[in-house]
Amino acid sequence: MNTASWWWDQQSNIPVGSTLIPVLLASDQIHLTNFSGDKKLWPLYMSIGNIKSTVRNKPTMNAWIPIAPLPVSPKRLHKIPNFSTETQELDALQLTHEILSHILSPLANAKSEMVCCDENMHFTHLVIPNT
Fold first, then answer.
1. Half-sphere exposure of residue 24, counting CA atoms within 13 Å on the CB side?
2. pTM (two decimals)
3. pLDDT, tens digit (0-9, with 9 covering 90-100), for 2-24
4. Bridge-based pairing state of the strands 19-27 and 40-48
5. How are beta strands 40-48 and 65-71 bridged, if at all?
6. What is the DSSP string of the chain?
């Protein structure tokens, strides 16, 4: 990730000597049960872009941590009168955005100091890349 032009653009916006920490998010649907209403869930996972992708993408390395379960709201409910499919889909999308905003709110403007492997103190800047 640190070879991308995005990384260098972000790095130029923070003070010299600081460390950029891109926060990566991932989610995938999990089928829970067939017997009580065909329930599904979208767990939200988080990792950081400073970990090499060859390490981050190995399940045995535990580089991705689950941070929250996202509910899967129905996208189409044809039984509700005067409530179009498009409106229902937009409402479901808006709800997902509100939930993510709440979950990720502690990361907003998060800055801290940490000791790196070179034994020097570095300021860290968390960034959530939008791709």
1. 14
2. 0.75
3. 667 887 888 888 888 788 888 89
4. antiparallel
5. antiparallel
6. -TTSHHHHHHHTTS-TT-EEEEEEEEE--EE--SSSS--EEEEEEEEETTS-HHHHT-GGG---EEEEEEE---S--TTSTT--HHHHHHHHHHHHHHHHHHHHGGGTT-EEEEE-TTS-EEEEEEE----
